[in-house]
Design goal:
Blueprint lengths: L4 H5 L3 E5 L5 H15 L9 H15 L1 E7 L2 E9 L2 E7 L8 H10 L4 E7 L3 H9 L3 E6 L10 E7 H9 L1
Antiparallel strand pairs: 1-2, 2-3, 3-4, 5-7, 6-7
Length: about 170
Amino acid sequence: MNETATDLADSSTQLRRADLDDMASVARIHRLAFFHAMPHLPVLHTPDDDLAFFSTVVFARAEIWLREQSGMTAGFIAFRSGWVDHLYVHPEHQGCGIGSTLLARVQSSQSSLRLWTFQCNLRARRFYEQRGFRIEQETDGASNEERQPDILYSWSRDSFSNDRNA
C-alpha cells in the first residue's frame, strides 16, 4: 500500500510515544521490515524472543516513538542520547514518509546521532545518506550477532546544515 503525502497528513495518522503495551506491534514490525530488507540474513531469534527483547531491553533503555496509520502501527524509532537504536517501517508503508517523519522527530531533539546498519541494506544506506548521515566506520561484522559487515553512520546538525547550504 502506497499512501500519498495527503494520506499522511489526514486525521487517521498519529505520531506518539510508545508504551509497554505497544511492544508486540513494535516487535512484529521489526521482524517484518528486517527480513523484508535482508531476507538472506540468518534468523537468530523467534518472534517471542523479539517481543521479550523489545519489552525488557529496548523499552527500558530507549525512547520509542510510533507512527500510526488508522490506529495501526506503521513504523517506529527507538533512540537514546546520541544514538538511533532502531528505525523500522512496515514494508507496506515504506516509501511514503513515515521513516523520514520518525527520524526528523529524533533529529529535532538531538545535536548529533550515530547508528549502525548492515552494508547489504542498500535502501537503509540511501535513506540515511540522503538525510545527512556520513559513514564513520565500516566493519567486517565480527562484532555483531549476525556476523554481517556493517556500517557506523554519524550525523550532526551543524554538518547537515552546512551540507544543505553548500
